Amino acid sequence: MEPVSSSRSWIFSTLVVILAVGAIFLLNQAMAQKNANTQTAVSQTTGDDAELRSRLTKEQYYVTKQNGTEAPFRNEYWDNKRAGIYVDVISGEPLFSSLDKFDSGTGWPSFTQPLAKENVVEKSDVSMGMRRVEARSKKSDAHLGHIFDDGPRDKGGIRYCMNSASLRFIPVEKLKEQGYERFLPLFEGKK
Fold first, then answer.
1. Environment class of residue 86 by beta-carbon count within 10 Å: exposed (0-12), middle (13-18) or buried (19+)?
2. Backbone angles phi, psi at 9, to 5 degrees
3. Strands 167-171, 159-162: parallel, antiparallel or unpaired by DSSP?
4. Does residue 35 sit in the same domain as residue 95?
5. 131 and 72, same structural domain?
6. For the chain, where are the alpha helices, taking DSSP H only?
7. Tens digit of each residue's pLDDT (9 = 90 or more) over 124-159
8. Is residue 135 within 8 Å of 162, Cβ to Cβ?
9. Alpha-carbon gap, residue 112 to 153, rounded angstroms
10. Do 97 and 148 fall into the same domain?
11. Which three-class secondary structure state does DSSP give residue 59?
């Protein structure tokens, strides 16, 4: 009897491994198709892809147009404490304010709310084997990051966890010079 039991166990283990490898293969295929669809949509909505690639760094392109994620604690704005606003690196749309930025301990710039809610589009994201809410820039359709419900409770409990590579920071003293003077009143009397 033992050889039959051992044989069944081996067959079961083999089937589990085959199913796991198949699932990983299908997930990779789905991610590749999603990236291909995103790249097609990008070229249709933002113009010439070659021009965009020439304007952005490799990491900026990877994050914004290929739905990538930069490394935590090794990105430009995770610990930026200067006063100002964060805009879409592609379109310049105003997205977030330093007044709503907080240290989430995650290594990415985190905000309690957008500066201009109409410029941040929320989409369901079921990649990576989990359900999340993705944040994208409305005008350029750039991937910004994800939205979680573990933010400061006294500020609504939401955390907009963004990639620095999708943002460009404009300090308060340059808002007028760069055409964002309408946001200057937000910073009056604040340090």
1. buried
2. -60, -45
3. unpaired
4. no
5. yes
6. 2-46, 49-55, 58-65, 184-187
7. 988 878 889 999 999 999 999 999 999 999 999 999
8. yes
9. 10
10. yes
11. helix
Strands 143-148 and 101-102: unpaired
Pick from 84, 89, 113: nearest CA to 176: 84
Beta-bridged to residue 170, according to DSSP, are: 85
Burial degree of 76 (CB within 10 A; 0-12, 13-18, 19+):
middle
Rounded to whole angstroms, the Cα distance separating 104 from 80 reads 13
Count of other CB atoms within 10 angstroms of residue 135:
25
Q: What domain range is 20 assigned to?
A: 1-46
Q: Which residues are catalytic?
A: 161
Judgement on whether residues 17 and 77 belong to the same structural domain of the protein: no
Predicted confidence (pLDDT) per residue in 2-30, tens digit: 565 666 776 767 666 666 555 565 555 55
* Co-location of 58 and 16 in the same domain: no
CA distance 110 to 101: 6
Q: Are residues 27 and 114 in the same domain?
A: no
State how far the Cα of 121 lies from the Cα of 119, in Å rounded to an integer.
6
